[in-house]
Amino acid sequence: MTIRSKGMVMAAVLAVATLAGSGAGWAAQCGNNAGGFETWKQQMTAEARAKGIGQRGLKALQQTRYATATIRADRGQKSFKYSLKKFMQVRGASTIASKGKRLKKQHAKLFANLERRYGVPPGPLIAIWGMETGFGSFMGNSNLLSATATLAYDCRRSEFFTGHLIAALTLVDRGVVSSSSVGAKHGELGQTQFLPGSILRYGADGDGNGRLDLVRSRADALASTANFLRAHGWRPGAGYQPGQPNFRAIKGWNAASVYQQAIAIIGAQIDG
Q: pLDDT tens digit string along 144-156?
């Protein structure tokens, strides 16, 4: 998985900023290797407690470990530099479109409900679902909190990921995630890969069971994705190809041009 460039990461800013506290300094000392991580954790625990994180979240923070694989992945992202043709090939666009058409029929009632509720047709939702995790077949193998904490500690984007760490700890306190939750290497969770701040802001109970589970419930994951797109200006019935009104919402999901175009193309093939 890859971290959202601007759109989806920035989508959670309001929720994260509220949790982190406007105007607050980042007292915990960042670092560029594992050497200072344990000291940082103690500093971060004090910050988290001051921001209202409860004992469950604080305990989960103390259990985190420096995630070398996360740092390696953060430094080595390449696929967004490909041409559109190469990107589509590498990400298996034709396979996503083919399977997506079958899933659209198989879960017709779910997608009809989502379109009625959020105004988003099946195509782009299914395209995102397939692009992010192969329709839930691989959602990552990294400890969610350790990945997020490592990026919060790392000096490259410490302030941004500190906000997402506070969001993740809030989700622990609420019972949405736990210290053992597993996701992608940048802390994304679930079948369509939401960062913690976006889970807080856009997470939606799609199956109506009163719980939010973006990992095991495809309905929750897809409803949350539709909710995100609607919040980013999706207009029911409008087109979503480049130059059309709803392409802006797809841009909100990911700032990489090749990704945006791929979602629009695959979505149209599924909806066609």
A: 999 999 999 999 9
